[in-house]
Amino acid sequence: MLRDNGYYYDLCASPLANATSPRDIEAHAWPDPTNVGRLDGLRDLALQAQGQGRAFILGGICAGMLEMGQWLRGFEEFYMDLAGNRALAEALCDKIIELKMDYWSRALPLLGDLVDVIQEGDDYGGQNTLLVSPSLWREVFKPRLATLMTHIKGLAPDTPIFFHACGSVHSILPDLIEVGVDILNPVQVAAANMDSRELKREFGDSLTFWGGGVDTQHVLPLGTPEQVRDEAKRRIDDFAPGGGFVFTTVHNIQADVSPANILAMREAVREYGVYG
Fold first, then answer.
1. Most buried among 109, 160, 201, 235, using CB within 10 Å?
2. pLDDT in tens, 108-143
3. Domain count of the chain?
4. Cα of 200 vs its chain's centroid, Å
């Protein structure tokens, strides 16, 4: 049943739940990523942003392979596909990459000269580890992600790619860098092996960290304003030296966060988040 007060994408059905073979994937009524209506007015918006001195970030057409697989097939079904019906899982991944490449092939020639950051992503991590094993990720997801990144880089070689990957993704950060990711988001610092100081030490020469400014699982909703200030200062101290840090919370500010904590975070950024 659909709720009228949800805060997120509330999944109500998985349209490919009954698929059994790659033929079912191909037969699905997929949206047309090249439909010109998808980009109507975007160039004017980009020019407007440029004129106002603001960055223009262009997002992709949909979430990544793992997320879309879970949504389209159902969470349990897609994980079972990866284990027992690999042909179906890979056909779905291939289709998602095909849609994405078709979209970028149209969007970047039209807007690329105005785009400051290209946004892609896939949620590979849970709280303690990846949602699939590193070996499975490298076998199924990495080669296809590399194909997509190479395609985008070929269309916009000088534009950095922002990649959203929630959770504990430390084990595959070298792989993400290898395939062409320039910016990591949301930098879930409360997840396992995602400490801000260690991330900066290990990967600060290769990645910009866009996020990780305040832990939104514990400190921002449950801490005192002083704890929030201390958290923001700590993350700035860890991530900011030498550049390569865009301060923002790890996740959206939730509905139960007090205004006092939001203001404390804002004040800390104004006080400490300044390059000399």
1. 235
2. 999 989 999 999 999 999 999 999 999 999 999 999
3. 2
4. 19
